[in-house]
């Protein structure tokens, strides 16, 4: 019979916390029966006390050891503690990286449960969309494909942020059964919406709209370095599309490590641009970046850049 020992690790901290919350919900009297130990405080003495102290009346106890790092000096002693763990005690080790060759890893893999949590890669849009649909279904809601695509475009691959946005959207739509694209736009921050609209204006070479949207962003003190990097990402993707022999969004997304939704948006406008023009736009972006570093007036620099990018 396996012991109740978990090693939860990986880059996706949000999913690890969700698993820990699930384990917490199984514990009665959590204020008394859940003990959290930070990694830097995890001495053998403290761990031994936590593992060996059991609740009264046969209740279960959960010990969570966060940011845990094992060293060879205390490995054997720790494994001995875990070997003799009380059936009443569940232990969770939470970390970012772990050496799979270590005795510690192999022991938990054999006697307990090891789970690695990874986020979605940019080309794993099908998996991400399924995950977002499942999050909405937890609240008895459906979410349209266009809403999923826009949410992923605005929020990126940060699962904690995406989960929080789903929670907000569920509250926003109220009794309505389905979350729509307009709901996502309605709840997006002004900065997020405006960056989205600015990229769209640049794809359509709409100088007037691009300048108007930028003025709103500038007024709201949007980070200009981030803005410039976001614009450069779009032109980098368009350059890749223009140079590529394929127009398959999924293949292009995998090559560029970008969202297929964003790829499709760029594909819709790619015929507005020549290869030479896209290369020239990169020169404009480099020049703007240099001018910002020489303390030129930022608003003027970006407005001139947008005008050049739109071919005005």
Report on this structure.
This protein is α/β, with parallel strands linked by helices and 312 residues long. The chain has three domains: 5-117, Rossmann fold (3-Layer(aba) Sandwich); 125-187, Helicase, Ruva Protein, domain 3, CATH 1.10.8.60; 191-309, Zinc Finger, Delta Prime, domain 3. It has 16 helices and seven strands. The chain has helices at 13-24, 30-33, 44-52, 72-83, 103-111, 125-137, 145-155, 159-173, 181-187, 190-203, 207-219, 224-243, 249-256, 260-269, 275-293, 298-309, and strands at residues 5-10, 34-38, 61-66, 89-95, 113-117, 142-143, 178-179. Helix 11 (207-219) packs antiparallel against helix 16 and helix 12 (224-243) runs antiparallel to helix 15 (275-293). The protein starts with a strand and ends with a helix.
């Amino acid at each position: 019979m396996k012991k109740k020992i978990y090693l939860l690790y990986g880059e996706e901290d949000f999913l690890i916390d969700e698993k820990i919350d699930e384990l917490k919900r199984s514990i009665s009297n959590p204020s008394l029966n859940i003990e959290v130990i930070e990694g830097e405080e995890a001495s053998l003495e403290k761990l031994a006390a936590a593992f060996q102290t059991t609740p009264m009346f046969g209740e279960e106890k959960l010990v969570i050891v966060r940011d845990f790092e094992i060293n060879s000096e205390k490995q054997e002693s720790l494994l001995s503690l875990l070997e003799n763990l009380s059936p009443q005690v569940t232990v969770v080790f939470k970390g970012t990286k772990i050496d799979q060759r270590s005795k510690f890893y192999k022991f938990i893999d054999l006697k307990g449960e090891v789970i690695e949590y990874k986020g979605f890669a940019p080309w794993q849009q099908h998996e991400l969309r399924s995950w977002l649909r499942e999050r909405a279904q937890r609240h008895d809601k459906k979410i349209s494909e266009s809403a999923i695509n826009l949410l992923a475009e605005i929020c990126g691959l940060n699962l904690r942020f995406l989960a929080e946005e789903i929670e907000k959207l569920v509250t926003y739509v109220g009794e309505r059964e389905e979350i729509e694209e307009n709901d996502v736009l309605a709840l997006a921050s002004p900065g997020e919406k405006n960056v989205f609209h600015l990229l769209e204006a640049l794809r359509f070479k709409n100088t007037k709209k691009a300048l108007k949207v930028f003025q709103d962003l500038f007024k709201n003190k949007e980070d200009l370095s981030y803005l410039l990097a976001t614009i450069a990402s779009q032109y980098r993707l368009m350059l890749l599309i223009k140079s590529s022999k394929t127009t398959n969004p999924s293949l292009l997304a995998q090559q560029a490590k970008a969202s297929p939704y964003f790829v499709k948006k760029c594909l819709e406008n790619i015929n507005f641009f020549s290869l030479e023009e896209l290369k020239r736009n990169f020169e404009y972006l480099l020049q703007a970046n240099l001018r910002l570093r020489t303390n030129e007036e930022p608003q003027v620099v970006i407005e001139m850049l947008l005008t050049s990018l739109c071919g005005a």
